[in-house]
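Schema walk-through. Below, the input block comes first and the output block second. Nothing else is stored per chain. Lengths vary across the set, and this one has 533 residues.
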Amino acid sequence: MTDDEKAAAARAAIEGGRAVLGVELGSTRIKACLIGDDGGTVIATGAHDWENRFVDRRWTYSLEDVESGLQAAWADLAADAQRRYGVTVTSLRALGVSAMMHGYLAFDADGGLLVPFRTWRNTSTGPAAAELSEAFGVNIPMRWSVAHLRQAVLDDEEHVSRIASITTLAGYVHRRLSGRDVLGVGDASGVFPIDSATHDYDEGMLARFDGLVDGRLPALRGLLPEVLDAGAAAGELTAEGAALLDPSGVLQAGAVLCPPEGDAGTGMVATNSVAPREGNISVGTSVFAMVVLEGPLAQQHHELDLVTTPSGEPVAMVHCNNGASELGAWAGLFTRFAAASGSDLDADAVFGVLFQEALAGEGDAGGLLAYNLLSGEPIAGLDEGRPLVVRTPDSRFTLANFMRAQIYGVFGTLALGMRVLAGEGVRLDRMLAHGGLFRTEGVAERFLAGALDAPVVVGETAAEGGAWGIAVLAAYTASGADSDLSTWLDEQVFAGAAFRTVEPQADDVAAFAAYLDRYSAGLAIERAAVEAL
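--- output ---
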């Protein structure tokens, strides 16, 4: 299609109410993505920047910021559609909500928030996570909702006696838009363990939890949202929900909603990695890898979470609390230097220059080590983080080596977890990558291929990420398709899609393995820094 034909098709989809909206509340941005009725073409986007807050030693976002951020992202998208096509978005065929997974939102019987939102980034639930992992026989990470709930009971928090429901951030926003208290199975699998046969909460573990709390809470099932597979209808946009997104009153009610999902599930959809022996990696404030399993793991590992795809297939997840934030901070410093020196390079251009420079670095990053740990990192056994750059007197301290060490550092704790997965004999045909880190072609994906010793694939939709992924899930729901999600994605969304694939190079594999050994040994420095600073 010509550009004019594409614009005409987009305009017709918007005017005909056939466009599909995806909204994702990520750690640093709320993104909105509007796709056409062909299943995946992006026709308008919007975004709003936000940041978590560290209040009373907990990472949180206020619900007021959630509401204003949703409205800002929608307004930005609506303005983009008006600017591109000269039309106003008044109605939608379908929409979906995604957000950072896990965490803890607890409400009373009147729907009032009992304590500030506790995000996935908090690591204060160690005793509860350890107790539940032993009781259930599966790894329960500290960030999971059930760990937060159990810890609140252990700590005898005042609000516990008034809890009537708990949910995730995606579940909360979905409830505000539709009035329904539901979760997609992928997001639900970060709340409580899922039974792979029923795609619902594990009944035996529910009973064990109820026994542990000994009457301090109502039966847990009654506190949790209903679980739905991908493709299920999860309500309609109400008049109140439309007004939440668009206070101007232009947006009409009635769009069908897909089940709300976590950012891990939408990342799998965005990279078309929902079939066994496929995996994906998402890099943002956190970094995580998802590998769809062919069968159960032999042992329990604290480095691995057992979650699901949006359609309920078992997945091993390696989740790291710390991703590209520290790298972004350094890029911001260099961007300011460029501006102070009179250069007209913008932030994206600076990123490109720095990433290209990293390619000239030595395989071992010149002996440098970079730790991106702004917060605690369970895989590394750290309750708190301290960002560090470490070198010895004989390290080769060049910009190229510094940048290579920073990019290596983004993948450091992830690679430690992936080593555990490899030890289980899990085979990986390819790793599909998405996130802004991969916008500079040929850099991050090359280093990642070396870190994983597996092919890394980046698609055209990598920069759109989860907002696009949840829009695609909403289109899947609206389509009423009889085919399974993997088949539908192959046939309706990714047929003919362009991907670039980077095969691991032997030198890169050896260099990163040596780097990771030094990185692992150097974690002792990180622990000392946490104690001293």
